[in-house]
Design goal:
Elements: H1 2-6, H2 12-18, H3 23-34, H4 47-61, H5 69-79, H6 82-91
Helix pairs in contact: 4-5
Protein backbone atom coordinates (compact mmCIF):
# COMPACT_ATOMS: atom_id res chain seq x y z
CA UNK A 1 0.00 0.00 0.00
CA UNK A 2 2.87 2.35 0.75
CA UNK A 3 4.38 1.74 -2.67
CA UNK A 4 1.07 2.54 -4.34
CA UNK A 5 0.55 5.73 -2.35
CA UNK A 6 4.08 6.85 -3.27
CA UNK A 7 3.44 6.09 -6.94
CA UNK A 8 6.15 3.43 -7.03
CA UNK A 9 5.19 0.20 -8.73
CA UNK A 10 8.15 -2.17 -8.80
CA UNK A 11 7.75 -5.30 -10.85
CA UNK A 12 6.54 -8.46 -9.13
CA UNK A 13 10.00 -10.06 -9.07
CA UNK A 14 11.48 -7.08 -7.21
CA UNK A 15 8.59 -7.01 -4.75
CA UNK A 16 9.03 -10.70 -4.01
CA UNK A 17 12.72 -10.08 -3.31
CA UNK A 18 11.66 -7.48 -0.76
CA UNK A 19 9.77 -10.30 0.94
CA UNK A 20 6.21 -9.05 0.94
CA UNK A 21 4.67 -10.17 -2.31
CA UNK A 22 2.84 -7.78 -4.58
CA UNK A 23 0.09 -5.24 -4.13
CA UNK A 24 -2.07 -6.99 -6.73
CA UNK A 25 -1.73 -10.43 -5.15
CA UNK A 26 -2.31 -9.02 -1.67
CA UNK A 27 -5.50 -7.24 -2.75
CA UNK A 28 -6.70 -10.31 -4.66
CA UNK A 29 -6.14 -12.48 -1.58
CA UNK A 30 -7.87 -9.98 0.70
CA UNK A 31 -10.79 -9.78 -1.72
CA UNK A 32 -11.19 -13.57 -1.59
CA UNK A 33 -11.07 -13.44 2.22
CA UNK A 34 -13.97 -10.95 2.53
CA UNK A 35 -16.08 -11.78 -0.52
CA UNK A 36 -19.57 -12.82 0.53
CA UNK A 37 -18.77 -12.60 4.24
CA UNK A 38 -19.97 -10.28 6.94
CA UNK A 39 -17.27 -11.42 9.37
CA UNK A 40 -13.75 -12.48 8.53
CA UNK A 41 -12.68 -14.74 11.41
CA UNK A 42 -15.83 -16.09 13.05
CA UNK A 43 -19.61 -16.08 12.81
CA UNK A 44 -19.73 -12.84 14.82
CA UNK A 45 -17.95 -9.48 15.04
CA UNK A 46 -14.35 -9.73 16.30
CA UNK A 47 -11.27 -7.52 16.55
CA UNK A 48 -10.23 -8.98 13.19
CA UNK A 49 -13.27 -7.31 11.61
CA UNK A 50 -12.44 -4.02 13.30
CA UNK A 51 -8.90 -4.20 11.91
CA UNK A 52 -9.76 -5.35 8.38
CA UNK A 53 -12.74 -3.01 7.97
CA UNK A 54 -10.68 -0.06 9.26
CA UNK A 55 -7.78 -0.93 6.98
CA UNK A 56 -9.98 -1.26 3.92
CA UNK A 57 -12.06 1.82 4.70
CA UNK A 58 -8.96 3.99 5.25
CA UNK A 59 -7.28 2.68 2.12
CA UNK A 60 -10.35 3.24 -0.03
CA UNK A 61 -10.88 6.74 1.41
CA UNK A 62 -7.37 7.75 0.38
CA UNK A 63 -7.37 5.81 -2.92
CA UNK A 64 -4.51 3.49 -2.01
CA UNK A 65 -6.86 0.49 -2.07
CA UNK A 66 -9.09 -0.07 -5.07
CA UNK A 67 -12.81 0.27 -4.37
CA UNK A 68 -13.68 -3.30 -5.26
CA UNK A 69 -17.32 -4.34 -4.74
CA UNK A 70 -16.31 -7.07 -2.25
CA UNK A 71 -14.39 -4.51 -0.16
CA UNK A 72 -17.22 -1.98 -0.17
CA UNK A 73 -19.80 -4.63 0.71
CA UNK A 74 -17.68 -5.97 3.58
CA UNK A 75 -16.88 -2.51 5.00
CA UNK A 76 -20.41 -1.05 4.83
CA UNK A 77 -22.02 -2.78 7.85
CA UNK A 78 -18.93 -2.21 9.96
CA UNK A 79 -18.81 1.54 9.38
CA UNK A 80 -22.55 1.68 10.07
CA UNK A 81 -22.06 0.21 13.55
CA UNK A 82 -23.13 2.66 16.30
CA UNK A 83 -19.72 2.44 17.98
CA UNK A 84 -17.95 3.34 14.73
CA UNK A 85 -20.32 6.25 14.13
CA UNK A 86 -19.72 7.52 17.67
CA UNK A 87 -15.95 7.44 17.25
CA UNK A 88 -16.16 9.21 13.90
CA UNK A 89 -18.33 11.92 15.42
CA UNK A 90 -16.03 12.36 18.43
CA UNK A 91 -12.99 12.55 16.16
CA UNK A 92 -14.65 15.16 13.93
CA UNK A 93 -14.55 12.85 10.92
CA UNK A 94 -18.33 12.49 10.58
Amino acid sequence: MSNKSAGWDPNEELQRRFGYGTYRLTMDTLEKAVAGKRYIAADHFTAADLFVASFLNFGMMFNVIDKRPAFETYVKPHVERPAWQKVMKLSGMA
